[in-house]
Amino acid sequence: MSRKKVEKIMFFSKTLDFLEHYLPDQSLKSRNTIETYRDALTVFRRYITDTMNLSLRTFGFEDCTHDFLLSYIEFLHKNGNSETTCNNRLAAIRAYLWYAADCDISLQSVALTASRVPFLKVPKLTREVIPDDALKALLSAPPDTKIGRRDRLILILLYDSAVRVSELLSMNVSSVNLEADIPYLRIYGKGDKERIVAITDKTADHLKNYLKVYHEVIDPDAPLIYTVIKGHKDRMSVGNVERIIKKYAAQIRSKYPNFPERCYPHMFRRTRATNLYQDGTELELVSRILGHSSTETTRIYAVPSVDMMRKVMESGDLESYEKPLWPDDEAEMARICGLR
């Protein structure tokens, strides 16, 4: 008796439901997270069609083998993608396959095979920060013109509030409160979590001047930072912010040989967090300012200064900066163990 041929299931047949329904409605992922998954699956699709010259119609789940994924990760790495980027894109494929397997039990072997593809080892790099003297010069580099004031405000907000560039560009005019006793920004971060970040009086003054020039008529729902294209105001892109930083970094680099070779938005956040920690701010408070759900995430910024290490060495208490195996906080320890 002949067996009936099992119909081949197209690999991307479930991506629409995964991205449009499962992630936002059931997994409750944020818009930015969903777009990260979409980008990762799009890059994989292009590898299949443009590099491997395969058709989406004929590429099935069973074609996504262990060796195929290994070749894909090797391709990404050889084409300039960092280990972290390669791992994130592999993780997105794994998540999609487990979703597909939950929908169709016959696909569980494919998801299991993908889960056995190893992540690349990520080297521990020294995360660069902007030196104090160079930081002052960089924040002062924009000229005293309309565009220069906007550029200076962007640099100042990235540092003073330690916001992610995506958080800065998503802010509206209503996100700024300059009338409170302590001026603050209302930030919506990863996972659509809201936090309040206080700003200095000097930063508040820069904001007041900026609002007078760029928001003569106050519209609470207008984007705080915007560009005008063909007479239409729209939110500034991340690429535009990166170009602004690169422009002013190039202007001062020759005078500051210790300035990082490459300067980008997240470096302002890292510099601020490191400076707060080295100035004696408790790690828990730094974590709240950054919007981290756990202080473990914030520890990457907890780099002791030379002066801090010197004082510890003089006191003989060298164990002070060793990371404990388990945190002292009982609630945090329970969270790490997956408990409440």
Automatic annotation (TrEMBL):
It comes from Oliverpabstia intestinalis. Keywords: DNA recombination, DNA-binding. Residues 124-314 form the Tyr recombinase domain. It holds the Pfam family Phage_integrase. Residues 13-101 form the Core-binding (CB) domain. InterPro entries: CB, DNA_brk_join_enz, Integrase-like_cat_sf, Integrase_catalytic, Integrase_recombinase_N, SAM-like_dom, Tyrosine_recombinase_XerCD. PROSITE patterns: CB (PS51900), TYR_RECOMBINASE (PS51898). GO terms for biological process: DNA integration; DNA recombination. This is Tyrosine-type recombinase/integrase. GO terms for molecular function: DNA binding. It comes from the Bacteria. Gene3D superfamilies: 1.10.150.130, Intergrase catalytic core. Belongs to the 'phage' integrase family.
